[in-house]
Design goal:
By secondary structure, this protein is an all-alpha fold. It has 5 helices and no strands.
Length: 68
C-alpha cells in the first residue's frame, strides 16, 4: 500500500500531463491490487474514490476525458 500513497501524491500535481499519467498509474495499481485494496482499511478505499472524483471534476478536458 506504500505505492498507493505515492500514486495518490502524484494525483495532486498541477501539470495536466502528469495527472493523466497519474490516472494510468492509479488504474493499473487498482487492477493489479484489488485483493489488497479490499483487505485494507476503509479509509484507503475512500481515498481511492476521492482521487477518481477529483479527476472527474478536473478543469482540463483531456484529464476529464481520461478519467471517464
Amino acid at each position: 500500500m506504500e505505492d498507493f500513497k505515492s500514486i495518490l501524491d502524484t494525483c495532486q500535481t498541477n501539470d495536466w500531463q502528469k495527472r493523466i499519467k497519474a490516472i494510468d498509474n492509479l488504474q493499473e495499481f487498482t487492477e493489479s491490487n484489488t485483493a489488497a485494496i479490499k483487505n485494507s482499511s476503509p479509509s484507503n478505499f475512500v481515498q481511492l474514490v476521492d482521487a477518481y472524483s477529483r479527476f472527474l471534476q478536473d478543469p482540463n478536458t483531456k484529464v476529464l476525458s481520461k478519467a471517464q
